[in-house]
Amino acid sequence: MTKPFIEHLAACAALAPSADNTQPWQMRWTGDALELHYVSRHPSTNVFDADSHGTLLAIGALAENIDMTLAANGVQGKWEWSRPGKQPYGCLDLPHDLPENFTIPPGLEARHTNRLPYRTDALEPGLRDKVAAARQGQQRMVVLQGNAARKALVRLVELSSQARFCNRDLHRWLFGSLRETPQEVASGDGLDVATLGLPPGGKTMLNFMSNWKRMAKLNRFGAYKFLAKTETGLISAAPALLCVVGSGKERNAIDAGRLLTRVWTQLNEHGAAVQPYYVVTDQVNRLHTGKLAPGFEDKIGAVEQELHRLLGLAQGEMLHMILRVGYPTKAPARSHRLPLSQVFVSEL
Ligand SMILES: Cc1cc2nc3c(=O)[nH]c(=O)nc-3n(C[C@H](O)[C@H](O)[C@H](O)COP(=O)(O)O)c2cc1C
Question: Which InterPro entries match (predicted)?
Answer without folding.
Answer: Nitroreductase-like
